Amino acid sequence: MDYLSTKYLRSRKIPSTACSGCGLGQCHKALVKAIDEVGFGINDIIWGTSIGCAGRQTYATWKGDSFAGTHGRVYAIARGLRLALPPEKKLVLSVGDGDAFGIGFNHLLHAVRTNTQMTVMVCDNLGYQSTGGQYGWTTPEGVVTDSSPYGMFEPNWVQSGRDVLAILREAGATFLARHVSMDGAVLVGTLKKALQNNGFSLVHVVYPCTTNFANTALGTRKPVTIFKWIKDRSAPLGKEKEDTLWRTGVYHDASNSRPEFSQLMREKVAEIHGRHEREGTD
Questions:
Q1: Which residues form the Thiamine pyrophosphate enzyme TPP-binding domain (predicted)?
Q2: d(CA 13, CA 155)
Q3: Domain ranges of the chain
Q4: What are 18-21's contacts with CB under 8 Å, separation 24+?
Q5: Average pLDDT across the chain, whole number
Q6: At the top level of CATH, which class does the domain 3-281 belong to?
Q7: What is the average pLDDT across 189-200?
């Protein structure tokens, strides 16, 4: 184990049980590295996870406090915890694309609407890979999957003029970004910014699935093929090419520009208490 694993992660969870060649470890390591570089310790972070590959691989890996939510409900749990926890504690969530942009989208929107402090890393393997490789909300158009043998044709959240990050921005998110897991140090830098926002932050990270997606869509399970396929179809904002699927970088940074939900609630409760105390003395 490297120093990050030794410092922050439970030894019984290392190495991961993810499939050989899975890019989820890149996502996880980038987030842990960002936490380390910002200067947060084990007791500063409460780590939440969801269902699917992203949740299964990261649940109870953090040495500190952690929790898991059922399908799409981790954001609702996180909002409740945010009200119960001391303000200095930070919530970090590692979730999958289906959990964030599918079944959990409604709960996610309410976390965004209220600007509840949480840093959400959406680990996107481009479909429902933990249940066999069906297409999902972010599967690229035309891709062959277990449930789209003639190519995925439904409109998705990241192509043809739609972008789920635009919806989240309009809903009130104060930090939004997108990367691919191979972005390395650039991804770490973005996650550091997300962690330092006292409000809702989301970083959408596309990562390679070698077992289901690569095997069906590309006809091979060789990690180098799927890693290159994703990297070749990503480009920094402003440097897009004709075949760019994922524009990477910070989409929106309004960090610390809106009151955070638990802070707003505490202030409102204090105001109500003060009002009643004044009325009681009149």
A1: 60-205
A2: 37
A3: 3-281
A4: 18/53, 18/57, 19/209, 19/210, 19/211, 20/210, 20/223, 21/208, 21/210, 21/221, 21/222, 21/223, 21/226
A5: 95
A6: alpha beta
A7: 98
